[in-house]
Amino acid sequence: MSHHHEADSAHVPGVLVGIDGSAGSERAFTVGLMIAKQREWPLRLIGTFSRPVVTDDYYVRALDSYRSEAAGTVQEVLDRYSARAAEAGVEVSSRTAEGDPGGTLVDESSEAHVAVVGKRGRNRFAGRFLGSVSNKLAAHAHCPTLVVPERWEAGAPTELMAPPQERPGGEGAEEEPVELMEESVSREHSRRSFANVTDELNFDAEIVVGVDVGDRATDVVHLAADAAALTKSPLTLVSAAPLNAQGHWYPNTVEHNLELPNLRRRYTDHLEAMAQEVAAKSPTVTVRWQFFDGSPAGVLSEASRTATLLVIGTRGHGGFAGLLLGSVSQAVLSRAVCPVLVIPTHKPRKH
């Protein structure tokens, strides 16, 4: 049996935010409220609590009391956030639901333009709100999902506290090379320099979008361009693929090295085409592209140390094949240290 409490139930598509009273949901609310104000969209707040497992008659009799108390506690949190949204001039509705937070947010996402969740939230009823929840929402949401992690502050003006991201690859992964092979143009905007970040992987003040070579990359890139236009940030299109022979990290043969320009051409041609599309559709956005020899998850996770926002698609073909379907998704979503916007490309929106 499902139990839920609805406040201001009439709502139209807008910004969906998962709330559990944690620091993570506070960050999600702050970002969600900003998006709602900028886009003039309504805000939809969702809180959940779990149904306990009962083992004897006493706990069965106490269940209704627990559910009522739990629903009231969650709704009190939602009411506080709703009041803040109303004070900011944003239309707001909320819902308290009993059950799985990830599944609830996935269902609610069918009537949202974007869903926002914080990273690794905990509370008395929901447990770990993000981690499994964020992965489930990002993989199955009907709308884009924005995952907001804890912010890493610089320990010193020239060094980031965010640690270098270990790249997947099993034994010997630390020796896995990541090399910038080609780029469209050099960056024109000013960036901070960090002693523990290489210049090629320094995306300070930029929005980075992971681009594969499939047709579905188009929607992902243009939504990233919309975010760049909204925040007045430069946009960098990034693609990566291991160009070594058969995906193993050992010296390549002479014959294989001679084929490298042809192997990477399909990526760079696609990046150039996407950049031209963005320039035509979003003329106010400064756009450029880079192609790396390396694992997509490693490059994107490293880029997240400095980028303002990282944008990825749920599924891809080629350089980003398998995003959100296994180790790559876990690497990007769990290790990224900047907000990550995940765009569903595997199924149509329900609007």
Q: Your description of this structure?
A:
Residues 15-149, 207-344 form the UspA domain. InterPro entries: Rossmann-like_a/b/a_fold, Universal_stress_UspA, UspA. This is Nucleotide-binding universal stress UspA family protein. It comes from Nesterenkonia halotolerans. Belongs to the universal stress protein A family. With 351 residues, this protein is of the alpha/beta class. The chain has two domains: 4-148, Rossmann fold (3-Layer(aba) Sandwich); 175-343, Rossmann fold (3-Layer(aba) Sandwich), CATH 3.40.50.620. The protein has helices at 23-39, 57-87, 101-108, 132-140, 217-231, 254-281, 296-303, 327-335, and strands at residues 4-7, 14-18, 43-49, 92-98, 112-118, 122-123, 127-128, 145-148, 179-183, 207-210, 235-241, 287-293, 309-313, 340-343. It has a twelve-stranded mixed β-sheet with strand order 1-4-3-2-5-8-14-13-10-11-12-9, sandwiched between helices. The protein has a two-stranded antiparallel ribbon with strand order 6-7. Helix 3 packs parallel to helix 4. It is elongated, with a radius of gyration of 22 Å. 46% of the residues are buried. Mean pLDDT is 79; it is low at 121-130, 166-173 and 245-250.
